[in-house]
Amino acid sequence: MKNFFIKNTGILAGLALLVASCAEGDNVVDEIFDNETRGAILRTVNFETNEIPIGASDYTFEVDLEVQDQQNGTLVDAIEVYLGFVDNTFEDTENETDRIVREEVLYETLNASTFTTGEFGLPRTSFSVALPAMLSALNLEESDIFVTGGDQLRVRFELVLNDGRRYSFADNSGTLTGSFFSSPFLYTAVVVCPPLAPSAGTWTFDLQDSYGDGWNGASLDVTIDGEVTNITMADGSESTVTLDVPEGAQAISIIFNSGDWDEEITYQVTSSTGTTILDLAPDHTAGVELLDYCNTSLDL
Predict the structure, then answer these.
(1) pTM
(2) How are beta strands 51-53 and 60-69 bridged, if at all?
(3) Separation CA 62–CA 47 (nearest Å)
(4) What would the pLDDT profile of 159-179 be if each residue is shown by its tens digit?
(5) Which of 258, 119, 127 shows the shortest CA–CA distance to 180?
(6) Beta-carbon-side half-sphere exposure of residue 200 (alpha carbons within 13 Å)
(7) CA geometry: angle at 88 spanning 87 and 94, to 5°?
(8) Residue 131, SS3 per DSSP
């Protein structure tokens, strides 16, 4: 009976502690809810591309958006659209005297009365703007951006609620920038140099692995006019792979795919002209174009 009494005493003490903790926790929760401010998000439904190839005068920025707030989007009065420009290709890197500066400008206001209802019962709208209109609004010429790759045209959306509150990029959090609830508010269209035409003939890919067990899942995606060839090394310390580029090919792209031990990998790519166009050390950046299309001396 003594043991039973002691055990139950412990249980009663635990229950008392639990009740006290719950009471204290309720106070914290109440404080959180009392001070909580619920806003609104602008979810990306569809966004086609964030690249503007040099010379693509017919480029159009297009995005489909969905409004969501605590009252199924009815709190939003309008969406303001702002345009901006970032010059990343100025020549004077010391004092930036060649940098073109364009402050953000209000381009258009999308009124809630024009929104449609999407598949989830929430308001949706679409926005598009052609490149000439963007340049005109920012007082820019094509010659200001179509010099080399890297410049950025930006489109920022700002939600205007019927109680006067506003939400945009600066109010965002990491939980709203990916997956289904992608709500960046700010979209960047980057000027890029167009892919170069490769020389016809046999291209050579020399692959190495310092440990000697192959590339462990890493590979190169070589795309020629939309057709992808995957190049890798299953085992060993070195290998040579050749790829025939047909006559009349218009564009080539080479992208590295990460594996388990990228720090062991090196490789060289030689075009059919005998020019080594890539000679990469370990720890490469994956998923990006390896060929510098903006390099006018690049001999493919």
Answers:
(1) 0.62
(2) unpaired
(3) 6
(4) 999 999 999 988 765 444 444
(5) 119
(6) 5
(7) 105
(8) helix
